[in-house]
Amino acid sequence: MTRKQNPMTLALCALGLFAASAASALAADAPMAPPKSEINAAVGTGAQFTPPPESSIPDDDFGKMVKLGRDIMLDTPKYAKDFVGNTLSCVNCHTDAGRMAGSAPLWAAYVSYPAYRGKNKKVNTFEERLQGCFKFSQNGKAPPLGSKTLVALESYSYWLSKGLPVDEKVAGRGYPNLPEPQQAPDYVRGQKVYEAKCILCHAANGEGQYVNGETVFPPLWGPKSFNWGAGMGSYKNAAKFIYANMPYGMSYSLSPQEAWDVAYFMDAQERPQDPRWQGSVAATRAKFHDSKFSLYGTKVNGKLLGDIGAPKPR
Amino acid sequence: MRQFIPMRRVLAVATLGALFWAAPASWAAAPPEAASCIACHGADGMGNAAAGYPRLAGLPEQYLADQLRYFADGTRNNAIMSGMAKPLSAAQVTALATYYSKLKPSGKPAPMPTGAAAAEGERLALRGDWEKGIPACIRCHGPGAIGVGENFPALVGQSAAYIEAQIKAWKDGSRSGDPLGLMHTVALRMTDAQTQAVAQWLAAQPLSPSKSASAKH
Hints:
The complex is a heterodimer.
Chain A: H1 7-13, H2 18-21, H3 25-29, H4 61-74, H5 76-79, H6 95-98, H7 106-110, E1 115-117, E2 122-124, H8 126-137, H9 148-160, H10 187-202, E3 209-211, E4 214-217, H11 235-245, H12 256-267, H13 281-288, E5 299-300, E6 303-304
Antiparallel strand pairs in A: 1-2, 3-4, 5-6
Chain B: H1 7-22, H2 35-41, H3 61-73, H4 79-85, H5 90-102, H6 115-126, H7 138-141, H8 160-172, H9 182-188, H10 192-203, H11 211-214
């Protein structure tokens, strides 16, 4: 993508050009100074917990496993290759390798499992919860229980959680709630937010950007992104993540309405099939997507979302 | 039996060969405007580390053109560059940006710093300091900080003096025009010690990292 081809991006990057900003309707709407933002997602969560510094990872066999877990978080296609079916890494949704409160930190998840999950209607161990990330968010396949990949991630999560009480409600878990939208989330408004704030990194068709085959900015939809079964496919969940974490370094800079709208826009795009496919879009929606926050199996702009056939075999 | 080859043909072939040998891959000759740039940025477009003049070679075309416009209109406040950029026509800006974007970067990185500052520089570049709201450089400037697309220029191949001065310029507002104000926002959160540490570490990185080095933490 170059800005020559895309007038919206051109306008976006003219934010600082006072000469140009008056000329275009879009740039005229844009703020002259960077919007007010918080330093990170944790600010909006009331989290008190700080995981230990990485410099304190022990220099022994356990420490090696902890470091492997951290590396999997940072570069999943490289360190967990066999279980990844797209170009995303854990860190794309778990800021700072799973350390950041308000960005689904691993330490808060670790002390909250085993737990019953409506998603698969059974009690899940922490390892089983991790398997879900690979199956859905990584559009891959579940690493076997006890495999090195899961042992490494569990070791890293355990190590991060030092000092946290088990099975207590822990501030900073998941993504912080954001205020309800004043207007129903809207595709067209969301597209405008996307073009103003997201396209710079995630590109015109949500395809992200790569350098030498490595993902820099993750694809948000399309064949290389998370599949329809991922948590991020709920636009409520996505709105919470975006509000607290996006753009990078500019937490809570979007209005709640903007976050809802752009999350709706992102989740109204096509992506890989839900691996829990029930033989038809309608049946899969009825069983797994019976929520107003999932657009799977609904018509957006005349297109039935998810109508792309059975999932590809892994 | 000796075969006679006319001297003129030998010469013609040799000349053509020499032309191919000498021509850069892009076949782009320096536009006349570049004469003014060379004094500070070098014939190779790699700048002057001691003086803090930046690398231009191989930076994104759009980014380079933007910077010339920013110098001209004051978005980037720099007395020397403002004087250079103001007289340029739009066509000249494009010609210069095209030329320098196609120049292949060259040269050796600065020596790797040692000690605690080097470790802090590496941490900031590869992991950031999220408690203070500072994302890692590589998250936007790519693995090895070699640059991504038209908006996130390479940081490698720049001198420590230049990188440090730019972060400070974003912090004090004398440089803007960064998309979404991203660099201004990050720079506001960086201490002088962090700025210096990350600049020195980045200046010591190779122009094109090995694949394994880019994923090192």
